From TrEMBL:
<feature type="transmembrane region" description="Helical">
    <location>
        <begin position="39"/>
        <end position="58"/>
    </location>
</feature>
<keyword id="KW-0443">Lipid metabolism</keyword>
<dbReference type="InterPro" id="IPR014430">
    <property type="entry name" value="Scs7"/>
</dbReference>
<keyword id="KW-0275">Fatty acid biosynthesis</keyword>
<keyword id="KW-0862">Zinc</keyword>
<keyword id="KW-0812">Transmembrane</keyword>
<dbReference type="Pfam" id="PF04116">
    <property type="entry name" value="FA_hydroxylase"/>
</dbReference>
<keyword id="KW-1133">Transmembrane helix</keyword>
<feature type="transmembrane region" description="Helical">
    <location>
        <begin position="120"/>
        <end position="138"/>
    </location>
</feature>
<keyword id="KW-0256">Endoplasmic reticulum</keyword>
<feature type="transmembrane region" description="Helical">
    <location>
        <begin position="144"/>
        <end position="167"/>
    </location>
</feature>
<dbReference type="GO" id="GO:0080132">
    <property type="term" value="F:fatty acid 2-hydroxylase activity"/>
</dbReference>
<keyword id="KW-0276">Fatty acid metabolism</keyword>
<dbReference type="GO" id="GO:0016020">
    <property type="term" value="C:membrane"/>
</dbReference>
<protein>
    <submittedName>
        <fullName>Fatty acid hydroxylase superfamily protein</fullName>
    </submittedName>
</protein>
<dbReference type="GO" id="GO:0005506">
    <property type="term" value="F:iron ion binding"/>
</dbReference>
<keyword id="KW-0560">Oxidoreductase</keyword>
Length: 211
């Protein structure tokens, strides 16, 4: 990781990396909701994925190839959602003291303390709200096909969370996946306004935000 760490003029002070962990809420219960075990996304979302695939196949009688195509499309669409959320929601530019506090709670805390192991995957209390919103968007726009599209989208999210945890928690592998480590750690230690893709750098190339 040393190749990525160094004072960068591109990093504002409120996003500059530090060691340790932050306290967001003085209330113990609220504070506990901001910390998540890395296995939580698997425990919470794999049963949901299983239910939707089962419902698509045995309740809606969708063809296997249709389910597979919709599932893959859902997983691919997550990569775009991931990029847009990370760039425009997690990294909105605060204009006031309240804005800085909100940005810190949403994502700034992760940039200040990128090695905090309990804040490397999204808390279920937050991700479930986002998942429900996406579900209704897909249900409204795709009808019954949303039942096969949505689980793929969720699997894309799971891959994102697991990839993010691995990048911050483990040394980069000695294969082509090493690029994901380099890409994301440059986002933290070189320029937080670029390299927004985590599970895939595709949309950074499309929108010109690679480093």
């Amino acid at each position: 990781m040393s190749e990525y760490i160094g004072k960068s003029t591109m990093i504002p002070d409120y996003l500059y990396p530090r060691k340790g962990s932050a306290v967001i809420f003085k209330n113990r219960f609220l504070e506990s909701l901001t910390k998540t075990h890395p296995i939580a996304p698997l425990v919470v979302y794999l049963p949901i994925v299983t239910y939707f695939v089962y419902h698509s196949a045995y309740k809606l009688d969708l063809k296997t190839y249709n389910i597979a195509l919709l599932f893959i499309a859902g997983a691919f669409s997550w990569t775009l959602a991931e990029y847009l959320l990370h760039r425009f929601v997690f990294h909105f530019e605060p204009k006031s003291s309240i804005g800085y506090k909100i940005q810190f709670m949403i994502h700034g805390v992760h940039h200040q303390y990128p090695q905090d192991p309990k804040r490397l995957v999204m808390p279920p209390a937050v991700s479930l709200i986002i998942a429900i919103l996406f579900w209704y968007v897909f249900k409204f726009s795709l009808g019954i096909y949303a039942f096969a599209f949505f689980p793929g989208f969720v699997v894309g999210y799971i891959i994102y969370d697991m990839t993010h945890y691995a990048i911050h928690h483990f040394k980069p592998p000695k294969n082509k996946l090493r690029y994901l480590w380099r890409h994301h750690l440059q986002h933290h230690y070189k320029d937080p306004n670029k390299a927004f893709g985590v599970s895939s750098p595709l949309w950074d190339y499309v929108f010109g935000t690679t480093i």
